[in-house]
Amino acid sequence: MNNKLKVLRAMRSWSQAELADRLDVSRQAVNAIETGKYDPSLPLAFKLARLFAMPIEEIFDDGFEGPADDA
Amino acid sequence: MMVSKDRPMTRDPSPKGIGGAVGWPIAIALAAAMLAGIFAGYNQAAVENGGEPLPAWLGPLVGIGFCAIAGAFYLRAYGAVWRQRSPRKRRYWLALGVAALVGALIGVWSMADSDTPVAEVAMIADGPVSPGFAIGASLLWLLGLAVSMILYHRAIDDHEERAWLWASLAGWYSFVFPAPVWWMLHRADLAPPVDAMALFLLSLVVNAVIYLWMKFRR
């Protein structure tokens, strides 16, 4: 899953360690999310969304391009 | 020399990092073990030369005393480093510390209990040990592992939990695949008897490799 975490972090001039401290996770976790090797759990995704004040789907992109809502 | 009003006149102490906070307890424990070892060596030499050995409890007591004094200095110097960390990270390092302490205690006790050289003291060594050591080390292993695992699983983040779970699965498979094959080949006299500790060691190694790869790959 693609994400904008690296860009959002760079915009705030935070290091991976600083972001990890704000999320209370390890630096390796931040690196793994940024490089796409690990998709965070829903609670951690919500934590990221709150930290960056953005909806989850603006941070993460699952590549789905179908119709948004057929109903 | 001009001094900015915004800056304190005294020199800031250099910030202490996690390296020292983790490294010093290891150094203190090693130094304590060496101190106790010096007393044990002296006693052994005294007995061999027909002399009077010192009381057996003196070496461990000196080691514990050294740990207490050095530990007090350590807490004074590095207490702030731990207080700055989140409760989750403190629990994490505490879990690792408990596991390391249990391992060190069993290792040192094992060396003291048997006359085997240090290089031969290993989990898969099959030399005789005293009943006291066997019971004590087993209790230390069971209780120490339980306490450190409870602390560890309460402390790890999602990413590490995932690494741990995959590593555990790989470790399990490294037991499940070879064990029945070895057992069947042995029944047909095509292989030596199944060595449970060799399989245990294999699963530990596989577990460690997968865990380290999943947690630290870049």
UniProtKB/TrEMBL annotation, chain A:
Residues 5-59 form the HTH cro/C1-type domain. SUPFAM superfamilies: lambda repressor-like DNA-binding domains. GO terms for molecular function: DNA binding. SMART domains: HTH_XRE. PROSITE patterns: HTH_CROC1 (PS50943). Transmembrane segments: none annotated. It holds the Pfam family HTH_3. Keywords: DNA-binding. This is Putative transcriptional regulator. It comes from Sphingopyxis panaciterrulae. The lineage of its organism: Bacteria, Pseudomonadati, Pseudomonadota, Alphaproteobacteria, Sphingomonadales.
